[in-house]
Amino acid sequence: MAEITYQGATVELLVIPTGMGVPVAGRPTKVALSETAGDTALSDHLADTSAAHAASAVSASSATLVGVGTDVQAVLEELDNAVVAVEDRATAIEADGSMKVRRLSYTETAGAGVYTGQVVLAAGAVLHSVAWETSVAWGADTSAMALGYTGALTAYGAAVDVDAIGGDQVFGLDTEDPDDFASGTTFNAVLTTTGAGTTAGRSAVTIEYSVPPAATAATKV
């Protein structure tokens, strides 16, 4: 019989060797554990499936990491801070007023179908142009694209024929004033094909937009 202490609990170890009570060195066949009466720390710990080990109590090595945390909790907090920093940077870049270009690609697969491309525009976005281009003709019987945004899905075209090689600017500075989206929106370009089709067709939609920074108020003298 032997006793050990683990997290405040006294544990008794009973080793029963094989061979009718004749000890066989190094080959115990049964180990019985019992806690001191009234002390259930060990069993409580073993039964806890959610909080047996706090993240701050589990060590971590930062030798190959960018951070310096030495436990799991610290490493997770460093990771969370890094994610927030990247998101803040992305938001700042998005709203710096420069022109942004987003391109949606469409690759034909056999059979009729619907291909949906989307670009999320942030609050205050200004859409400057929308254009499409087909570099490889589509094998489908018909290939028509609806171009618009949430609430007006065909604002820039209800059934633009993109079947043949070619392209066109369906909305832009040459013909219309830019569209402003104070609350933001989602640009949609939905291509619908009919017929058996092939795997040949290739098209793309390109939009140009900006997200101007907050306006600077003029002063009166």
Question: TL;DR?
Answer:
With 221 residues, this protein is mainly beta.
Features:
221 residues; mainly beta; Jelly Rolls; 5-stranded antiparallel beta sheet; 4-stranded antiparallel beta sheet; 2 helices; 12 strands
What can you see in these coordinates?
The protein contains two helices and twelve strands. It is mainly β and 221 residues long. It has three domains: 1-46, no CATH class; 59-94, no CATH class; 100-210, Jelly Rolls (Sandwich), CATH 2.60.120. The strands form three sheets. Strands 4, 6, 9, 10 and 12 form a five-stranded antiparallel beta sheet that branches. The protein has a four-stranded antiparallel beta sheet with strand order 5-11-7-8, with no helix packed on it. Strands 1-2-3 form a three-stranded antiparallel beta sheet. Strand 1 and strand 2 form a beta hairpin. The longest helix is centred in the middle third of the chain and has 23 residues, at 72-94. The chain is flat, with a radius of gyration of 33 Å. The N and C termini lie far apart (95 Å). The model has no long low-confidence stretch (mean pLDDT 79).
